[in-house]
């Protein structure tokens, strides 16, 4: 299932549950449930009213008892706890793990200070995006990274293929896939004060993009101050046997203000923050430059190249890309993935990749790709929805200001 439809699917499920017998709807919607993988929090989701849907081969909560609109707003006002254990965490180790990884990603991994990380992109030979990932240099011989659930199989096959070739030439690199751990994302203004109750470490000293291994609620966790909502928050890799206890402790310490939140609100939150969703806003034919991720290409990497597709990407940096990812406000119904974008003369100039109604701004937002020259903020466009044109305007992203915790 493509992520861009999560918000719509959540609304559809909500309507159907309100209008029909819940058990009958559940049988129709979730017929393939037995074939899906389940996180260790599956029973916890069910017990808390999670409405489960198939996503990237997993049974995941799309929402809980509150609406997607309400849970989106609550994340920005208070906080949200997401189960993102379907994503794949892995460690690369060995004295050559950094030069090895730099052959596959655009980031200046060597330039990262120990305990810091960055968003990066795995590229192919044509410069296209295989996946985006948050990578962290734990230390010079240990890299921790998390890849998307829907890309897990192709990402691991890609890494393994190149690792075998690298090791055959004497390179010292190995990996461990953290299937023994679960991943929770705690996001929102209450994330830090709530989590502080559960650890002795001073979280005020951990800034956006930084990483630490520490004890949280009695378990050894990997803690990264990051997330995909635009809010301050953390991703917590916790031993799976401790995951449910940690989730319960977080909710309890927040006194009901931090809520369990599903994939529907996660999608609207990341769209409001102007963040790409792989499979919608980035795919194998889209380069990081076209996707507006030029900032993620390290300065040294721009000078030296050395990653897959570098020739294509460096040429785009020099000459400019032919298409660009931009944001939109629009009238009429919310624009959806693949809606055509036209200029004021009716010429096709691109398409929407993600769109929806912003619960926080109370208006339609979207992102997509347009031809260079039509990408400047304020450019008026028409967006075709079910064959009918509606007014739209190119706008800067993020739509909702980000609140990452950085040094003042």
TrEMBL record:
<protein>
    <recommendedName>
        <fullName>Aminomethyltransferase</fullName>
        <ecNumber>2.1.2.10</ecNumber>
    </recommendedName>
</protein>
<dbReference type="GO" id="GO:0005739">
    <property type="term" value="C:mitochondrion"/>
</dbReference>
<dbReference type="InterPro" id="IPR028896">
    <property type="entry name" value="GcvT/YgfZ/DmdA"/>
</dbReference>
<dbReference type="Pfam" id="PF01571">
    <property type="entry name" value="GCV_T"/>
</dbReference>
<dbReference type="GO" id="GO:0004047">
    <property type="term" value="F:aminomethyltransferase activity"/>
</dbReference>
<dbReference type="Pfam" id="PF08669">
    <property type="entry name" value="GCV_T_C"/>
</dbReference>
<feature type="binding site">
    <location>
        <position position="235"/>
    </location>
    <ligand>
        <name>substrate</name>
    </ligand>
</feature>
<dbReference type="GO" id="GO:0032259">
    <property type="term" value="P:methylation"/>
</dbReference>
<dbReference type="InterPro" id="IPR006223">
    <property type="entry name" value="GcvT"/>
</dbReference>
<dbReference type="GO" id="GO:0005960">
    <property type="term" value="C:glycine cleavage complex"/>
</dbReference>
<dbReference type="GO" id="GO:0006546">
    <property type="term" value="P:glycine catabolic process"/>
</dbReference>
<comment type="subunit">
    <text>The glycine cleavage system is composed of four proteins: P, T, L and H.</text>
</comment>
<feature type="domain" description="GCVT N-terminal">
    <location>
        <begin position="41"/>
        <end position="299"/>
    </location>
</feature>
<feature type="compositionally biased region" description="Basic and acidic residues">
    <location>
        <begin position="337"/>
        <end position="346"/>
    </location>
</feature>
<dbReference type="InterPro" id="IPR013977">
    <property type="entry name" value="GcvT_C"/>
</dbReference>
<keyword id="KW-0489">Methyltransferase</keyword>
<feature type="region of interest" description="Disordered">
    <location>
        <begin position="329"/>
        <end position="348"/>
    </location>
</feature>
<feature type="domain" description="Aminomethyltransferase C-terminal">
    <location>
        <begin position="324"/>
        <end position="400"/>
    </location>
</feature>
<dbReference type="InterPro" id="IPR029043">
    <property type="entry name" value="GcvT/YgfZ_C"/>
</dbReference>
<keyword id="KW-0809">Transit peptide</keyword>
<comment type="similarity">
    <text>Belongs to the GcvT family.</text>
</comment>
<keyword id="KW-0808">Transferase</keyword>
<dbReference type="InterPro" id="IPR027266">
    <property type="entry name" value="TrmE/GcvT-like"/>
</dbReference>
<dbReference type="InterPro" id="IPR006222">
    <property type="entry name" value="GCVT_N"/>
</dbReference>
<dbReference type="GO" id="GO:0008168">
    <property type="term" value="F:methyltransferase activity"/>
</dbReference>
<comment type="function">
    <text>The glycine cleavage system catalyzes the degradation of glycine.</text>
</comment>
<dbReference type="GO" id="GO:0008483">
    <property type="term" value="F:transaminase activity"/>
</dbReference>
<keyword id="KW-0496">Mitochondrion</keyword>
<keyword id="KW-0032">Aminotransferase</keyword>
